[in-house]
Design brief:
Strand content: 25-35%
Strand order of the largest sheet: 3-2-1-4-7-8-9
Helix content: 25-40%
Distance between the termini: 55 Å
Structural class: alpha/beta
Largest sheet: 7 strands, mixed
Number of helices: 6
Order of helices and strands: HEHEEEEEHEHEEHEEEH
Bound molecules: zinc ion
Number of strands: 12
Length: 279
């Protein structure tokens, strides 16, 4: 008995280390067949079906590639787009808001994007924006223009997690390739303009994503986490309809650049993102 417990104790860490959990982060603007603003309404029935189809294809691919668990975070507009009624039966869904760390302290085996769009101001990026198309003009991380792809990849990297897959438009794929060259990319549409694209059919997009997801699992051990070296600055320029509140200069770690631009300084991405989100 003692021997048995001892053996289990020795084996358990090994077993835990072998469990492959993928954290799948989703958005709407990069989904195949989504190219008009009104389609991004979280309650748009067609978009929900298209997005869910791509997510489920990715889950199928991950499981076929050897992953044990897929946790889906509905990253689009208040996390109200996905439903457990239609999500892959073996996937789990995060419901409700997450903190600044985006749950990365759980040290998932890998992070993946489905339905991802490119950062703000990118030519040919379908509905390109950085976190908020109405609210934010530009976001700079250590002086580099960024959107969700860089910020999420950096947060994952802070916790030692690699990004292994992205599906979205060509511009989003190019953006991830720049920082994680070995990640699997499934390009489901080519943006010709902000609201003009050439898109794959839903069926073709799903097949592409399923294959890329399956291949990506094998890359978990070889893709290096994307790490943004500290100290880190995050500069946020809001759109012209915005003005920083009068007490903005007293926000922790903040420096007011002009009436609608604020810069935060922190020792790493986690600290700077916490400062930015603390309101
Ligand atoms: Zn987004």
């Amino acid at each position: 008995m003692i021997r048995c417990t001892l053996l289990l104790g020795l084996l358990a860490p090994w077993l835990v280390a072998q469990t492959i959990t993928i954290f799948l982060i989703t958005d709407a603007e990069g989904v195949g067949g989504v190219c008009r603003q009104e389609q991004t309404d979280p309650k748009d029935a067609e978009m929900r079906q298209l997005l869910t189809g791509e997510i489920n294809a990715a889950v199928e691919g991950f499981l076929a590639g050897g992953a044990h668990e897929v946790i889906v975070w509905d990253g689009h507009d208040g996390s109200q787009t996905l439903s457990t009624l239609t999500i892959h039966p073996k996937a789990k869904l995060v419901m409700g808001g997450l903190g600044a760390s985006m749950l990365m302290e759980r040290k998932f085996s890998a992070v993946a994007f489905v339905g991802q769009h490119s950062k703000a101001n990118i030519r040919g990026g379908v509905m390109a924006h950085s976190y908020s198309s109405l609210g934010i003009q530009t976001m700079l991380l250590n002086g580099k223009p960024v959107g969700e792809i860089d910020v999420i990849a950096a947060m994952a990297g802070h916790f030692g997690i690699p990004v292994i897959l992205l599906s979205g438009d060509q511009a989003a794929a190019d953006e991830l390739r720049e920082i994680v060259p070995a990640a699997e990319l499934a390009v489901v549409k080519e943006g010709l303009g902000r609201y003009t694209c050439i898109t794959l059919s839903a069926e073709a997009a799903r097949a592409l994503i399923r294959d890329a997801a399956r291949r990506s699992v094998a890359k978990i051990r070889t893709i290096k986490p994307y790490v943004v070296p500290g100290p880190v600055t995050l500069q946020v320029e809001y759109t012209t309809r915005n003005s920083l509140p009068i007490d903005a200069p007293w926000r922790a770690g903040a420096e007011v650049i002009d009436d609608r631009t604020i810069r935060f300084r922190g020792k790493d991405i986690l600290e700077v993102w916490r400062l930015y989100r603390a309101r």
